[in-house]
Amino acid sequence: MPTPASAVRRHDPAHARGQAEVAPAPVAEPALVTIGLTKRFRGTSALDGVDLEVPTGVVFGYLGPNGAGKTTTIRILAGLARPTAGTARVFGHDVVSDREAAQRELGYLPGDFVGYPELTGREHLTYLARVRGGVSWRRVRRLAERLGLDLDKRLGAMSHGNRQKVGLVQAFMHEPRLLVLDEPTAGLDPLVRREFLGLVREARQDGGTVFLSSHVLSEVEAVADRVAILGSGRVLVTGSVEELRRRARRSIDLVFVGPPPLAALRDAAGVHDLRSTGRTAHLTLEGSAAALMSAAAPYGIENVVSHEPDLEDVFLDLYAGRP
Ligand SMILES: Nc1ncnc2c1ncn2[C@@H]1O[C@H](COP(=O)(O)OP(=O)(O)OP(=O)(O)O)[C@@H](O)[C@H]1O
Fold this sequence. Notes:
Helix content: 25-40%
Bound molecules: adenosine-5'-triphosphate
Distance between the termini: 31 Å
Number of helices: 13
Low-confidence stretches: 1-18
């Protein structure tokens, strides 16, 4: 049973000495909370009760295969679609009933950013900066320079990647408290991707929160603090990148001095997908390696090669229906 707060206070030495009690540090309001978020399109259930909590000041990766519901979630957050049921709040503002206040907190990059084709990048961004207010043109110029964007070209004449840069500049230019980015690196070349990841890290350093969907798991791994993996409109797993990695199976090669003792290895806890080539046993391991090592040791181990799992392994394990 939890200890009652009054009991804790009675034994507080500061309290016993008659000193003033120190008020607990205020807990920062989450940047984003969704509860039971559901969206149905006629016969299709795009989202089916999505619960998310994104703390302030983190980079949150939102992953899932094609059709999982990522864009639908993000469009609801951006006020472009209404949930069939459930709620979403941005810094406490309901995205439906308090839409304007929620939108003021956001920088949003749609997955299919096109903008106004007849305007140049400069005209487009000037227009959006006026509508939004409080945008420093120096910041716009700096963002454009960093991403290698030519502001004088018409959007309609830009390549997909260059148009995406305009989309990124408009999302970042007003230094929003929450960036919601749908596939932000789609179409960007590797140098621009790197610059973009730098911008995300800087936004976090400055106290901002970034919620981004992506198919590029290595990128998410490089920049995200927390991740949710979505499948068929439901959150399958959520946690820190480190926690998720620990869940995934490691792939291990054990080289023996003689033929690999497959029968002994197969019985060790956590061993899966066992096979051998020559003197090497290949397997995947779930959890601790202790049982595997005790089973293998009597047969003479010459070498161990362990491939640490990455987010891609977590992702593939989940979709292979593994625990
Ligand atoms: N306007 C719509 N009308 C009907 N069905 C829709 C609509 N928008 C999305 N859907 C369906 O909702 C489901 C989720 O789609 P969504 O675009 O959110 O997935 P996603 O995770 O963003 O996929 P991707 O990675 O391919 O972009 C899909 O089955 C999709 O076909």
